[in-house]
Design a protein that fits this description.
The complex is a heterodimer of chains A (154) and B (700). Chain A is α+β, with helices and mostly antiparallel strands and 154 residues long. Chain A is 51% helix and 14% strand. Chain A has one domain: Glutaredoxin (3-Layer(aba) Sandwich), CATH 3.40.30.10. Among the domains of chain B are: 360 residues, Up-down Bundle (Multidrug efflux transporter AcrB transmembrane fold), CATH 1.20.1640; 115 residues, no CATH class. The radius of gyration of chain B is 31 Å and the shape is elongated. Chain B has 700 residues and is α+β, with helices and mostly antiparallel strands. In chain B, the strands form 4 sheets. Chain B has a 4-stranded antiparallel β-sheet with strand order 3-6-2-7, covered by helices on one side. Helices cover 63% and strands 10% of the residues of chain B. The chains are: A alpha+beta (154), B alpha+beta (700). Chains A and B meet through helix 3, helix 4 and strand 4 of A and helix 17 of B.
Chain lengths: 154, 700
């Protein structure tokens, strides 16, 4: 019974998420923009959900790193959103906790640098991870990387 | 009138006395004028037509650049790793050629996919297809052929490279290690084309001189008269229009007219020496040709005069070439030619094949009136049908069938949004509905849809997916083929289509601002504008020739002969073109205009000779013989000379010369047959036999 209820909730959430327009998604994302790692100086905002251990996410970040053009046209708001099978929660927290998260992100995802993940984080870091997770669920982020391009609403 | 014989003895004496001066003045003036004006030969056929293309002006006003589009087809025995590498090298070499902007081919294509190792990625990948092994490439293209159909055939043995270049490409210096064919016609004349063109004319004239007249004087005279006519025609045209530009078609018209005029004068001088000395022969050459030759001028001027007011510099220049050259050739033939010929006499005044004239006269005197009537009715019905069809559906009259061709367009845009994409999609669907043979329409919509579909979306295409597709377009540098700074590029691949119909449809499409950017379509569009003007003018010219002939010979019947004898070659040529599915193009109409010029000359000379002989009491048969002997031989000679010249022009690589050559040669043949078999019979038919000097009481 519990499983069925969970499934119903999940399907309902999915359905609600699918119905969200880009404008609605952006409206949900804007309040947490300050939690994102900003990369690039372009006029067009791209909200990106990645998992630091996901190879597709790593490919994507590497492509941005290698393409100054793509960083001139677009401005990326990178959010970490864990894919459970990668078990990357600690790594996410460690990168967020570092003094320069973007630089650390690039080291890990592009430079494939191995870092020792912390086990415990400051409440601010946990709050950030939870807030992002909350919005990601509302938006219906199902893939990594997951892109939302907000050309019209910058 | 045709029965008057002008007294030219004083004129001939004057010319003979000052012959050295006359020749010197002509040569010096010509050299001086040539050096002063320095006419510019238009080497580019495209430039000639583009110079007043409305579509070209529209495109350049938007500051869009234009390109030549060519298709290099390469045949291979099979497709393996080695062939793939060689084809990739060819792709690189083509891209490296000066002026090349883009080379579309299988080896410049990408495979667009989502890495399906996991369903959790939104990343679309675009990989150059050449990165795959030969075997994988083959398998991939066979499984997903649609984007690559225009680049490779089903069994991977024929590869197409569609080349966009600033200039016309030459492959002479390139080593293409396969059997290949390049589709783009040569539209830029090279020195070799001119040398070939001049060489052919000189060779044919010399052969004509040797075979027919058994001397070189005829050749030297023809070349001199032609050269002088060319120089003075283009000098006078510069004086009238201020334009120094000469297209090769204009010079062909001048050469045709000059040779036509010259032969009447020279031939009479030549054969008159059978009974007279060369001085008397000069006199006869002038006084027997003075009237008919001068009558050809008002006929040409009044019949083609309307073209001078056409809203087209090209049409004006073409018609002016014909009119001015006719007047110049006339003056050169009665002033320069007698001065030149007075230095010579011929030892073989007989012209062997003139005897066939008697054969024609003997047979045609017994013509079958019913057959003639039937032929006339058929020709008139066909003429009316052509005129009605031209008036009712002028657009459908001139089609240009192409096996494979590419039209490129630009569409200005401010933003690539769903509305813009919808407009392009509607355009594509309407293009396919209203036109046959649209193989592929490649635009930003095509690539955006491919990028979007790589993720196998379950919902309708929306703004977010468009933005994402644009993102990947930018990420993989796929944009430059489809999007410029302020315009979207659309490329339409035609397969077994009527290109002119597609161009006309595109010109009339209003839902999108369309700008043609490929030179061939722009040039074709310009030609289509002129084609209709020339077609209607040629038809009105036929009517005018009839009216003027009627006035000259003071007979409505002769007027009808003038009209119908000129119309017959045009009508049957048009029928021939339609039956054999040749396109009725501007080149065909230029050939028709040349034919009108020459046929009207022949009709006047034939009519003059026939009615003059009849006036002086000759029987119908004798008048026919005289007509064939004095006017038929030069008419046949000029037709044969020009037919050979035109036919040989088809061997050149320059496309417009090839077409004018082919059409001109066919038209000359039809005109010649009409002049030999129909015109004399028509003259017999309208000859009521009343106007002889005996019956009217006049004296010679």
């Amino acid at each position: 019974m519990t499983v069925l209820l969970f499934l119903w909730c999940f399907i309902s959430m999915e359905a609600v998420a699918k119905e969200l327009s880009t404008k609605q998604k952006v409206a949900l994302l804007q309040p947490i923009e300050h939690y994102a790692m900003q990369y690039g100086e372009g006029d067009i905002k791209v909200y990106v959900f990645v998992d630091p251990k996901c190879p597709h996410s790593q490919d994507f970040i590497s492509m941005l790193f290698e393409s100054p053009k793509m960083r001139t046209i677009y401005r990326y708001y990178i959010f970490f959103y864990e894919l459970k099978r990668f078990n990357s929660h600690d790594l996410i927290g460690t990168i967020y906790a570092s003094p320069k998260p973007l630089q650390r992100l690039l080291e890990v995802m592009v430079g494939k640098k191995e870092i020792d993940p912390l086990r415990e984080f400051e409440p601010a870091v946990t709050e950030k991870i939870n807030a992002i997770e909350d919005v990601a669920e509302q938006v219906g982020v199902s893939k990594r990387p997951y892109l939302i391009i907000a050309k019209e609403w910058n | 009138m045709y029965y008057h014989t002008p007294d030219t003895s004083h004129f001939v004496t004057f010319i003979r006395r000052f012959r050295a001066w006359v020749i010197a003045i002509f040569i010096l003036l010509s050299v001086g004028v040539f050096a002063f004006i320095k006419p510019e030969l238009i080497s580019s056929d495209t430039f000639f037509w583009l110079s007043e293309s409305k579509q070209f002006q529209k495109t350049t006003q938007q500051e869009y650049s234009t390109s030549n589009i060519g298709r290099l087809s390469v045949k291979t025995a099979g497709f393996d790793e080695s062939t793939k590498k060689r084809l990739q090298s060819l792709q690189a070499e083509l891209e490296y050629q000066p002026g090349v902007e883009q080379v579309e081919s299988l080896f410049a294509s990408h495979i667009v996919y989502n890495d399906r190792t996991s369903d959790e990625s939104e990343i679309v990948k675009a990989l150059p297809i050449g990165h795959l092994s030969a075997e994988k490439m083959l398998t991939f293209v066979k499984n997903f052929p649609e984007p690559y159909e225009r680049f490779v055939n089903d069994d991977f043995t024929e590869f197409n490279f569609i080349i966009h270049s600033k200039n016309q490409l030459r492959f002479d210096h390139m080593n293409i290690p396969f059997e290949h064919h390049y589709s783009e016609p040569v539209v830029e004349a090279q020195l070799g084309h001119y040398l070939w063109y001049v060489g052919v004319i000189v060779l044919v004239i010399v052969l004509m001189s040797r075979i027919l007249f058994r001397n070189y004087i005829a050749a030297f005279g023809a070349i001199s008269v032609t050269l002088l006519t060319l120089i003075w025609t283009f000098s006078l045209m510069y004086l009238f229009t201020g334009s120094k530009q000469i297209h090769i078609a204009m010079s062909l018209m001048v050469v045709s007219i000059a040779i036509g005029h010259y032969l009447y004068f020279y031939y009479r001088w030549h054969v008159s020496q059978f009974k007279n000395d060369s001085i008397r022969a000069i006199e006869k050459s002038i006084n027997r040709n003075l009237h008919p030759a001068v009558w050809t001028l008002p006929v040409l001027i009044l019949s083609l005069g309307s073209l001078l007011f056409a809203d087209s510099k090209i049409v004006t220049m073409l018609s002016l070439s014909l009119m001015v050259s006719s007047a110049v050739a006339y003056i050169v033939s009665i002033v320069f030619l007698p001065a030149f010929l007075s230095y010579f006499s011929v030892s073989h005044p007989r012209v062997g094949f003139a005897r066939i004239c008697y054969w024609f006269a003997n047979h045609e005197i017994h013509y079958n009136p019913k057959l003639l009537k039937g032929f006339m009715v058929a020709s008139l019905i066909l003429l009316v049908t052509i005129v009605v069809r031209l008036a009712m559906t002028p657009d459908g009259f001139f089609d240009k069938h192409v096996t494979q061709n590419t039209i490129t367009l630009k569409v200005p845009f401010e933003d690539i949004d769903l509305d813009t994409l919808q407009k392009i999609e509607t355009f594509e669907s309407e293009l396919r509905i209203h036109n046959h043979g649209i193989e592929k329409v490649d635009s930003v919509v095509t690539i955006l849809k491919r990028l979007d579909m790589a993720n196998k979306p379950q919902t309708a295409f929306d703004e977010q997916r468009l933005l994402q597709a644009l993102f990947f377009l930018e990420l993989y540098d796929l944009k430059q083929s489809y999007i410029d700074k302020d315009a979207l590029n659309i490329s339409i691949t035609l397969h077994n289509a009527d290109q002119s119909a597609v161009i006309r449809w595109l010109e009339g499409y209003k839902a999108l601002p369309i700008y043609f950017t490929d030179v061939e379509s722009l040039s074709e569009s310009s030609k289509m504008d002129k084609t209709l003007i020339l077609a209607f003018s040629s038809l009105s010219a036929l009517l005018m020739i009839g009216v003027i002939m009627g006035i000259i010979f003071r007979s409505a019947k002769v007027g009808f002969v003038g009209f119908i004898a000129n119309a017959i070659p045009i009508v049957w040529f048009t029928v021939f073109m339609m039956v054999f599915n040749f396109e009725l193009s501007i080149e065909a109409l230029i050939a028709m205009t040349i034919s009108v010029g020459l046929t009207s000359d022949t009709i006047i000379h034939f009519g003059y000779k026939y009615f003059r002989s009849r006036y002086f009491g000759r029987t119908r048969k004798h008048a026919l013989e005289i007509m064939f002997f004095y006017s038929g031989v030069p008419a046949i000679t000029s037709a044969v000379v020009l037919m050979i010249v035109f036919a040989l022009l088809t061997l050149t690589e320059l496309q417009s010369l090839q077409l004018i050559g082919a059409y001109g040669a066919i038209l000359m043949l039809i005109s010649l047959l009409s002049d030999l078999f129909i015109l004399p019979v028509l003259l017999l038919a309208v000859d009521n036999g009343n106007k002889t000097n005996h019956e009217s009481g006049k004296h010679i």
